[in-house]
Write a structure and sequence with these properties.
192 residues; binds guanosine-5'-diphosphate
Length: 192
């Protein structure tokens, strides 16, 4: 692709010319905030009380990672994946990124996250980018899982680690952006 950016008269520079798409899956215990994180990222909104999603919801969102490159995420929200184990192989197939979410106020949710990381290691592509995501950062006063404990686990298994709040939006977009930056963008562009 040629760089004829001087022809553009837009003040903010030319629109990105490189476009890549990746499948990203969300995993984690029920009610940790998976759908809320997706809603925050896709619609920049938050709903206090949510209907539990049935089956797998599917949304897309693009994010510009540099002047020239847009990454489109095809986001698969498990929606109680634990109740739909038969979906698992379809769910993981060709996933290039995974957000394994836990709730900092729910002790059990980190153990569940550990379980999902193991499952990903067994079933997903070996080069999948996995991020451990601590949600509900706005509920700091009710925190049961320390940053140190989660970060240590993430380091041991070579996972990215982020702390977010779907409610306030803190760090949500940056998390997706950081994950996008770890993806094999150049390889994917060469294949297309
Ligand atoms: P999922 O089952 O993992 O998809 O979880 P949901 O997105 O349905 O969220 C479960 C509950 O947690 C809902 O009542 C949400 O409003 C709430 N929730 C989600 N994210 C946050 C957050 O960042 N902070 C707070 N305080 N509540 C949240």
């Amino acid at each position: 692709m040629s760089e004829t950016s001087s022809q553009s008269s837009a003040l903010n520079g030319p629109p990105p010319t490189r476009f890549v798409q990746f499948k990203l899956v969300l995993l984690g215990e029920s009610a940790v905030g998976k759908s809320s994180i997706v809603q925050r990222f896709v619609k920049d909104s938050f709903t206090e009380l949510r209907e539990s999603t049935i089956g797998a919801a599917f949304l897309t969102q693009t994010i510009q990672v540099d002047l020239n490159t847009t990454v489109k995420f095809e986001i698969w929200d498990t929606a109680g994946q634990e109740r739909y184990r038969s979906l698992a192989s379809m769910y993981y197939r060709n996933a290039q990124a995974a957000l394994v979410v836990f709730d900092i106020t729910q002790e059990s949710s980190l153990d569940k996250a550990k379980y999902w990381v193991k499952e990903l290691h067994k079933q997903a592509n070996s080069d999948i980018v996995i991020a451990l995501v601590a949600n509900k950062l706005d509920l700091e006063a009710e925190r049961k899982i320390s940053t140190e404990e989660a970060q240590t686990f993430a380091n041991e298994l070579n996972l990215l680690y982020f702390e977010v709040s779907a409610k306030t939006g803190e760090n949500v977009k940056d998390t997706f952006r950081e994950v996008a930056l770890k993806l094999p963008i150049e390889d994917k562009l060469k294949q297309s």
